[in-house]
User: What shape does this take?
Amino acid sequence: MPFKHHMSVNMKTSTLLHIDSSPLGAASISRDLSHRFVERWRETNPGGAVVTRDLNAAPIPTIDGQWVGAAYTPEEARTAAQREALALSDSLIAELVVADEYVFGVPMHNFGVPSVLKLWIDQVVRAGKTFAYVGGAPVGLLKNKKATFLIASGGVYDACTAMASYNFVEPYLRTIFGFVGVTETTFLAAGGAAALNYGKVDRESFLRPHVETIESWFQALTA
Ligand SMILES: Cc1cc2nc3c(=O)[nH]c(=O)nc-3n(C[C@H](O)[C@H](O)[C@H](O)COP(=O)(O)O)c2cc1C
Assistant: This one.
């Protein structure tokens, strides 16, 4: 029998959905971390696909009355205009369904998630698509997904610190992703970025422990 190369058969191909939400471009800490995560993910998943959605590059509209009416009209009864109103939501949800894994770069804005990320969440949390009520109780419909959130903030909000109760980013993301079925979540808090603005720390020193944390995740995967 001739020698056969089984590499492509054995290789698990998966898809990573990469979503950034900082308006700061190259200066952004959360973008820096999510890009480093994606680089390591590519190395760990040769043949894997990365889908990138930059929420600052292509603004997502607010949901309006037409959208809500369309979402709560049974699919088969929707008019062409209602289907059109849900087209973006449908395609954003399709990205979530197709991907095996998600990584989010998230800046803290006013103790919460940035508005562009909230707009995306409003488009993808949809009855009958990403959650459903079964016997009166909500059930998440995204199954077997893994999500990583890389969160940058000016202050420090670690558990047991004075500011912990001001942090609406991690609890909110945990709740909303749990609601749609994504319970395998990892959070990295890069807090204290304000020190960078005061020149108290240089960017590489600030990033180092967080880059090392990301590195340790990938090393644990391949160990
Ligand atoms: C509009 C705005 C609001 C912010 N609000 C907060 C805040 O409530 N708490 C905080 O600790 N840092 C806050 N910051 C600081 C950012 O969280 C910090 O600069 C972080 O690095 C942002 O992530 P990025 O670098 O990826 O954009 C705010 C920054 C901006 C631009």
Notes: Residues 22, 24, 28-31, 107-111, 152-155, 193 surround flavin mononucleotide (CB under 6 Å). Residues 1-10 have pLDDT under 50 and may be disordered. The first helix runs from residue 7 to 10. DSSP finds nine helices and seven strands in the chain.
